[in-house]
Amino acid sequence: MSPVVKNVVLLGGQGSLGTHVLEALVKSKKFTVTVVSRKESDAAFDASQKVIKIDYTLDSLAQAFEGQDAVVSTIGAGDQKLLVDAAVKAGVKRFIPSEFGSNTTNKQGQEMCPLYKPKVEVVEYLQSKSKEHPDFTWTAIMCGAFYGPSLPHLLRRVGEADEADGSACLDWCLRMGVGAIDLKKHTAIIWDDGNKRWSATNMATIGQSVVGVLTHLAETKNRYVRIQSFSASQNEVLAVLEHVSGKTWPRGHADALKEAAEGREKLAKGDWTGVYQTILGALMNSHVDCGCDLGKDGPLDNELLGLPEESLQQTTEAVFHEMNAE
Which candidate, 174, 222, 178, 232, places its Cα nearest to that of 200? Predict the structure, then answer.
């Protein structure tokens, strides 16, 4: 008989993705959810939500994970191996790392975007630990770009988001005018020809996918799952925005490979604003397949995980109206 997950720990529950994962876990009414946060964090949660604040050391994390069936991480890749060690030490059954993005195993994508490789290294570490400890298992969720209406605190300054290593890039672009489409000024910068397709998943749906994994342990054991709300191109997104706004948007153009190279130079100098250029370069360049259209890499797991059917048009219209109502 397959094990059942009842107790779940979430790390990063205050972040832009973590809030959606927390909401999905709680609303499912299938789990007892505990949020683990750093001692110095001033993040606020609902009074009914159990929160443990600790130093991020192996012993303190392992103690926090005691009695937990699953650990879900939505924090940056830098802490992942420590979290894995703590989960193994505590006897956790399932670990969901902070993967949440495109196909990071794609070699061309790794060259384009330096943040791919650390995520691959985390999964390789999980694979080694699951071999050493057969009762310890993992699932990594590929979801493409973050998309869709979301909580107001998403509208923070670029660089403040603390989870998923910048995978929310497209969401930022739609909302903040970073790089591609500016919903406030109604302008667009089209990268290359604008026809490159990429996967995108509404953030609430990513939260639901975590619930789906934790209720389908056998089917998702020790593997990547691939999900998307839809696949799209820049030109398709812009067409919806022009339709809903009733006007043609002024547009410019950018060279995706040049932008990505500039982003890598920034990252090499410690300037993390370059992450957005490298992710957008991987998503939107017309020359290299970087693993961003997940349906091309294998079957999607939407049906298995019980995810809703969604459309680019409805979601983009909702984002537009949300932003322009402020």
Answer: 232
